[in-house]
Amino acid sequence: MIITVINQKGGVGKTTTAVNLAYVLSKTKNTALLDLDPEGGTTTSFGMKRDKKEYPLGGKSVNIFNVEVFPAHLGLLKLELNGEVDEVVKSIKDVSNNFDILVIDTPPNLGTLAVSSMIAADKIISPVTPQPLAIEAAKNLDGRLQSIGKKAIGFTNLSNKSISIDLSSVSFTNIHIPQSRLFVEASRLGVPAIRYEEIRLKKPKLSRFFEELAKVTLE
Ligand SMILES: Nc1ncnc2c1ncn2[C@@H]1O[C@H](COP(=O)(O)OP(=O)(O)OP(=O)(O)O)[C@@H](O)[C@H]1O
Ligand SMILES: [Mg+2]
């Protein structure tokens, strides 16, 4: 199953979602995480550096905390600029065939990599923050989803209550991930926040949100 995390607005929590969802899913499923953002947010969140070499898509992976991570590399920029959507979709599906679940982190745009990730996806999930620009981005995403005939699951990030917008291709769950400095601390250290709190806190605060998200996504 391919799960794509998408929202063309920057900084809404795509990478945070992809990293922690993959970490939670890897406890019960053979899980991979594909960083398709040339900026490499997922890569650094797992303590790695963007690779300066070029690989074919899915050409390099490292197993960290039981998640098979495919880090960002120089080849992604070329694919973003000159890649063909059909070929990228095929490569994504080829990578996913080796796993129960492939989670994909995407860049903050609706370019070749993001669109290919949506087309390849079995499930699309979209974090939305309660700011006007993020909500506007969700509306644009809705239009794009309609044009490719796909549906997405929306949920709220950085808020204590869920937001719900009436869209035709994005249905909002009542999952709302609160603002927490654990996310920032964990990303600075290069570990998923859920992993970090498992080690640091007696009582985890954040895992239930991602467990819920995993459940809703796999339904
Ligand atoms: N719920 C949260 N509470 C506190 N900080 C958060 C939360 N979610 C994300 N952040 C922080 O906000 C910043 C942006 O989040 P993230 O990188 O996941 O967004 P993104 O959508 O992937 O951004 P980009 O589009 O630039 O790739 C990061 O520093 C992250 O640690
Ligand atoms: Mg990101």
In summary, what is this structure?
The protein has 219 residues and is α/β, with parallel strands linked by helices. 42% of the residues lie in helices and 19% in strands. Strand 6, helix 6 (132-148) and strand 7 (152-157) form a beta-alpha-beta unit.
Q: Could you characterize the architecture of this molecule?
A:
There is one protein chain. The chain contains nine helices and eight strands. About 40% of the residues lie in helices and about 20% in strands. An eight-stranded mixed beta sheet has the order 3-4-2-5-1-6-7-8, with helices on both faces. The longest helix is centred in the middle third of the chain and has 17 residues, at about 130-150. Helix 1 (about 15-25) crosses helix 9 (about 205-219), helix 4 packs across helix 5 and helix 7 packs across helix 8 (about 195-200). It has one domain (about 1-219): P-loop containing nucleotide triphosphate hydrolases (Rossmann fold, 3-Layer(aba) Sandwich), CATH 3.40.50.300. With about 220 residues, the chain is an alpha/beta fold. Adenosine-5'-triphosphate binds near residues 37, 157, 177, 184 and 187.
Architecture blueprint of SSEs:
Layout: E1 2-5, H1 14-25, E2 31-35, H2 41-45, E3 62-64, E4 67-70, H3 75-82, H4 85-96, E5 101-105, H5 112-120, E6 123-128, H6 132-148, E7 152-157, E8 170-177, H7 181-189, H8 193-200, H9 207-218
Helix pairs in contact: 1-9, 4-5, 7-8
The structure holds adenosine-5'-triphosphate and magnesium ion (MG).
**Structural class, from secondary structure content?**
alpha/beta
Overall 3D geometry? Answer: globular
What's the Cα radius of gyration? 16 Å
Q: For the largest beta sheet, what order do the strands appear in spatially?
A: 3-4-2-5-1-6-7-8
CA-CA gap between termini: 12 Å
Number of strands: 8
**Uncertain segments:** none
**How much is the average pLDDT?**
96
What's the CATH first level? Alpha Beta
Q: Which ligands are bound?
A: adenosine-5'-triphosphate, magnesium ion
Q: How is the biggest beta sheet arranged?
A: 8 strands, mixed
Task: Work out the helicity level.
Answer: 40-55%
The helix tally amounts to: 9
Number of domains: 1
| CATH homologous superfamily (4th level) name | P-loop containing nucleotide triphosphate hydrolases
CATH architecture descriptor text: 3-Layer(aba) Sandwich
Under CATH, the topology is which? Rossmann fold
N-to-C order of helices and strands: EHEHEEHHEHEHEEHHH
The amount of beta strand, in percent, is 15-25%
